[in-house]
User: Which sequence fits this backbone?
């Protein structure tokens, strides 16, 4: 019987991959900046100051100012709070639902598998932007819409990953023997199988977060993002994109923040993946 | 597969009618009088109960293969979709080729120099483009290569096949950059796993010709990447809106967005059905290609973990559409 | 050693892949050599007399009576022309008519046609064609810009004269007639069905449709029979669909297009100062405006509306969104419309002390919460809404921004399902009535632009202004109306943007019109 390693155990057993350390450090730095900068900055991320609109980066405004004269440094940091929280919050439910669906489909096969497969196939064949737009039309643009859209689409990834992993384990001898020994299905699913497939799901989760963040940014570009005046990287990049040739800082600096988070999460994902393979 | 198509067809029909917004208001403009709007509703059959609209929609679809006259463009929906299709197909095709052309050499170089500086570079550098939204990359490309250096056109489509390729260079590179990181990582991981696997050792121990071993390694490494690749392409079908907008390409993606904005029900339905058809076709092709590879690798499985690894980077494929 | 062979295998594949990349880049490069002109050269095909105009929406119909949206209107007005028109300043000028007379009682309008007028198919234009056109327009039940005067008859006393008789005087008639919707078509559509005719229209305008993709580009060729001799100066006019604004700007910079219909205001300084680009402007008939739903319990209170208007600094809004290409609006009528009191009116604007007084006098001295309805995707409106939000906060009113897509937005405000919204108010023709009637008449279908605002005095004055001949008396009426509307604040006019066209430097003679259209007949490419 394979012992069910948890992620934590492996961390103790092996030296941490350097990509993981670098990624975690970068992410920690970003989170710290998002927490500290708005707290210590003399500027309010929301209050307008028209006379100082669209100033280039300077000592007073290291990131410059936006169209309404707001300090971009404090706005990028404040948007970090919003977007990072959103990123984690939006991912959570699809992760749980997808993992459960994948476990069930992979373990039982048969009709639960067929239903879940059909549903995910239909959703994938459904034009993504149509779904995005429809949800935004019903809820109005903003966080609720973003949350719903990615709830509808997001679980598929986890379901597919976990299903594949579960199916390859479900036929294994130790699962059969567990069944013979009288373990209930629920116990086999959650006590035996889940810990074994969880690490894969977590790796997917980390890499999916980057994609989610970019997706939220793109919604901002399409005018379907977070509502003003809440600062958000997507809306900031979108608002500034028409200035790209003349006032580069308005969209490039929030964009750089997204890229940094992307790098941090990719490094973490890479490191976790290394750990899984070593185990 | 048919069931998927049916689900999408019915789903789209219901959904577009349940959201708020009225096509007549959009076509007739801000100052439309209530009589004009009522008149248009009558002409479009929007005053009928939902089941009536549905039966007549299905009847038209089955008898003519069309979903009716587009409300916003005042032309056959099918004709509109078909007229926009070539640009989208070219875009998806060029991007698909570019993804392979970039990913394969990168992944192999990295795998061959595992943990060397090339490997580190290949692992880190693509993550930078990972966090860049396509519209932003596209804008920067336009400013750099078209406006400043004047190497490529700013946007739109030039006539002729060579003109088409020329126009597709920047847009397809933009899409490819967003997709390659996933493919490269999946491929690199797989090549490494296969190279280090028992079966390669066994094959070698059996003194099989290297030629045969090579083929096995590649096939084994390609299978999961192929599935991921197929999923990525599925998402490009009808999902190239952002790149079409940024590069001014008259494709299906921007047509869909306009149709949605205008609540152009017949056109939305037409596009959704054609896209679903496209996605189904892509998955059939991928399945066949996968089957061909799988048929030859069978019996030389690398271990239970591989199948699972296939799904590993599928993750952001879903988001790859954005 | 075993490993090296595998490596070789992989190298082979690598070489193949590299070859593929090379092939693609070669294809791209050879192309680069071949047609650099299209990326950098003058206009699209190198043909010096083609003008390519970037527009954000395609032309879907050319029916001059049923269409109103600008994507169609500004194609229609190149094909069909009315008896009278307007110039850059919105002044009515004779067009297909060489002169017009209005009887003293305001009941008879007489137009004399120019000599030698021809349709694009070479046939002569007669008064019968004009009569047919106007009668057909009156009969069209889906008319988008219907003639609202009480018309008794439209007749042709002779081949060159058109006479319109009214049952009661209606001063805006002449301005209404200047609409593109009163263009002249051949009698009985030249023997074709209406649908066939509008698929391949024949008019007196400077251009003729030659190629038309309803979801893409529209190509015009010059009308060889145009009545203005020697014009138009260009032989081909292409309406090119470029949906993305930034893309259009970049195409203009590289010469892929010669002009942009709707350049974003934030790009103008760049285009004005560009080496190869310039901008042309005219005053507009548009005012971007906050509207209050006066049927809402909070905004029924005039003090609440006045408080918000006083709290807001409209000059700031203008500055933030217009980049020097708009006038701060003080009144409902834009400056380019006659009788606008923009220069003399006393607006309720930018006075925080008074704002606080007003809110104290209102039913909600301690403030309240409400929502601004906003169509998503409009950057300027989003900025303006945020400015109102912070202004309102200063008088204790907490505003949330309810941002929905444009179709939902329209459905909601037309169902009066909003509290405050931001939208554009636009005149269709150069007469004060075009705006006032739509925005202040509670009995019209628009219910004072969906504000439900009603003031019997204003209603009576606007009805009277419709029948008062142009002159001081009419000016007085509109002055009173504008002051009342400014004081009672059913809406806060924010700014009137200039009409702006971005052009290549070599484009001369483009006439920019205040309704956002342009005239191409004098255009030459230097």
Assistant:
């Amino acid at each position: 019987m394979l012992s069910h390693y948890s992620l934590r155990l492996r961390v103790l057993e092996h030296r941490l991959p350097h990509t993981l350390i670098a990624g975690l450090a970068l992410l920690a730095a970003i989170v710290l900046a998002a927490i500290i900068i708005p707290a210590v900055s003399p500027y309010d991320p929301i209050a307008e100051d028209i006379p100082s609109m669209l100033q280039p980066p300077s000592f007073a405004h290291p990131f410059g100012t936006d169209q309404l004269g707001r300090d971009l440094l404090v706005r990028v940091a404040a948007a970090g709070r919003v977007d990072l929280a959103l990123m984690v919050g939006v991912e959570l439910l699809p992760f749980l639902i997808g993992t459960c669906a994948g476990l069930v489909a992979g373990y039982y096969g048969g009709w639960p598998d067929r239903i879940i497969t059909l549903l995910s196939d239909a959703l994938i064949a459904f034009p993504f932007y149509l779904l995005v737009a429809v949800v935004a039309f019903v809820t109005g643009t903003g966080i609720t819409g973003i949350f719903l859209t990615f709830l509808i689409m997001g679980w598929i990834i986890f379901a597919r990953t976990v299903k594949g992993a579960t199916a390859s384990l479900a036929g294994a001898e130790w699962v059969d023997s567990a069944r013979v020994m009288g373990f209930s299905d629920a116990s086999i699913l959650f006590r035996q199988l889940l810990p074994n497939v969880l690490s894969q799901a977590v790796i997917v989760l980390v890499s999916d977060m980057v994609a989610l963040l970019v997706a939220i940014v793109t919604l901002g570009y399409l005018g379907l993002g977070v509502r003003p005046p809440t600062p958000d990287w997507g809306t900031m990049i979108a608002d500034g994109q028409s200035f790209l040739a003349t006032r580069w800082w308005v969209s490039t600096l929030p964009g750089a923040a997204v890229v940094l988070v992307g790098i941090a999460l990719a490094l973490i994902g890479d490191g976790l993946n290394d750990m899984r393979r070593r185990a | 597969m048919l069931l998927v198509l049916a689900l999408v067809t019915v789903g789209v029909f219901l959904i577009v009618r349940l959201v708020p917004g009225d096509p007549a208001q959009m076509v007739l403009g801000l100052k439309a009088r209530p009589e004009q709007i009522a008149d248009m509703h009558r002409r479009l059959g929007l005053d009928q109960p939902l089941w009536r609209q549905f039966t007549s929609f299905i009847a038209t679809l089955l008898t003519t293969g069309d979903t009716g006259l587009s409300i916003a463009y005042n032309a056959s929906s099918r004709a509109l979709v078909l007229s926009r299709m070539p640009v989208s197909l070219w875009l998806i095709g060029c991007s698909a080729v570019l993804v392979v052309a970039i990913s394969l050499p990168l992944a192999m170089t990295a795998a061959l120099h595992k943990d060397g500086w090339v490997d580190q570079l290949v692992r880190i550098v693509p993550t930078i483009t990972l966090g860049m939204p396509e519209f932003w990359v596209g804008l920067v490309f336009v400013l750099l290569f078209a406006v400043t250096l004047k190497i490529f056109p700013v946007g739109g489509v030039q006539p002729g096949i060579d003109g088409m390729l020329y126009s597709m260079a920047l847009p397809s590179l933009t899409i490819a950059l967003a997709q390659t990181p996933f493919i490269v990582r999946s491929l690199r991981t797989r090549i490494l796993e296969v190279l280090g696997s028992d079966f390669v050792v066994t094959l070698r121990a059996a003194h099989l010709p290297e030629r045969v071993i090579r083929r096995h390694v590649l096939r084994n490494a390609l299978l999961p990447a192929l599935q991921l690749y197929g999923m990525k392409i599925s998402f490009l079908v009808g999902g190239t809106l952002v790149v079409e907008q940024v590069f001014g390409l008259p494709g299906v993606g921007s047509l869909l967005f306009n149709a949605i904005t205008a609540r152009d029900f017949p056109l939305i339905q037409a596009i959704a059905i054609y896209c679903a058809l496209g996605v189904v076709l892509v998955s059939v092709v991928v399945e066949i290609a996968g089957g061909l590879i799988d048929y030859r690798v069978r019996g030389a499985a690398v271990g239970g973990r591989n199948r699972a690894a296939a799904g590993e980077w599928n993750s952001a494929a879903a988001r790859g559409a954005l | 050693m075993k490993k090296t062979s595998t490596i070789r295998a992989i190298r082979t594949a690598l070489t193949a892949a590299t070859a593929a990349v090379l092939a693609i880049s070669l294809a791209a490069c050879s192309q680069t050599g071949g047609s650099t002109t299209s990326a950098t050269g003058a206009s699209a095909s190198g043909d010096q007399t083609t003008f390519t105009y970037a527009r954000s929406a395609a032309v879907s119909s050319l029916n001059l009576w049923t269409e109103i949206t600008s994507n169609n209107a500004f194609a229609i007005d190149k094909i069909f022309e009315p008896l009278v028109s307007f110039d850059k300043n919105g002044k009515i000028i004779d067009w297909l008519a060489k002169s017009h007379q209005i009887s003293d009682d305001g009941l008879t309008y007489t137009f004399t046609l120019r000599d030698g007028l021809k349709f694009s198919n070479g046939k002569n234009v007669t008064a019968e064609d004009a009569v047919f056109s106007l009668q057909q327009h009156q009969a069209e039940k889906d008319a988008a810009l219907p003639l609202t005067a009480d018309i008794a008859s439209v007749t042709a006393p002779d081949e060159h004269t058109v006479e319109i008789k009214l049952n009661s005087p209606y001063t805006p008639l002449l301005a209404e007639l200047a609409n593109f919707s009163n263009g002249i078509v051949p009698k009985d559509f030249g023997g074709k069905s209406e649908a066939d005719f509008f698929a391949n229209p024949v008019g007196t305008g400077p251009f003729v449709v030659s190629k038309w993709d309803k979801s893409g580009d529209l190509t015009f060729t010059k009308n060889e029979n145009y009545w203005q001799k020697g014009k138009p100066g260009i032989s081909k006019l292409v309406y090119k669909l470029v949906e993305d604004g930034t893309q259009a700007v970049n195409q203009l910079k590289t010469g892929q297009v010669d002009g942009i219909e709707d350049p974003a205001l934030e790009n103008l300084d760049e285009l004005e100062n560009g080496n190869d680009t310039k901008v042309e402007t005219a005053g507009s008939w548009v005012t971007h405006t906050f509207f209050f739903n006066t049927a809402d319990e909070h905004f029924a209170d005039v003090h609440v509306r006045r408080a918000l208007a006083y709290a807001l600094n409209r000059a700031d809004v203008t500055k933030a969104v217009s980049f020097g290409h708009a006038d701060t609006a003080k009144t409902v009528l834009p400056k380019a419309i006659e009788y606008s009191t923009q220069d003399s009116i006393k607006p309720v604007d930018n006075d925080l002390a008074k704002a606080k007084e007003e809110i104290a006098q209102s039913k909600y001295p301690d403030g309240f919460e409400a929502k601004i309805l906003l169509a998503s995707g409009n950057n300027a409106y989003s900025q303006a809404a945020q400015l109102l939000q912070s202004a309102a906060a200063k008088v204790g009113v907490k505003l949330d921004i309810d941002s929905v897509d444009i179709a939902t937005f329209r459905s909601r405000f037309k169902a009066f399902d909003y509290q405050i919204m931001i939208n554009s108010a636009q005149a269709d023709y150069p007469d004060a009535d075009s705006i006032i009637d739509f925005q202040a008449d509670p009995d019209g279908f628009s219910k004072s632009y969906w504000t439900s605002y009603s003031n019997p005095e204003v209603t009576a004055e606007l009805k009277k202004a419709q029948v008062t001949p142009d002159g001081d008396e009419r000016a007085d009426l509109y002055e009173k109306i504008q002051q009342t509307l400014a004081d009672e604040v059913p809406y806060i006019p924010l700014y009137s943007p200039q009409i702006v066209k971005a052009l290549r430097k070599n484009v001369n003679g483009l006439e920019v019109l205040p309704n956002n259209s342009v005239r191409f007949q004098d255009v030459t490419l230097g």
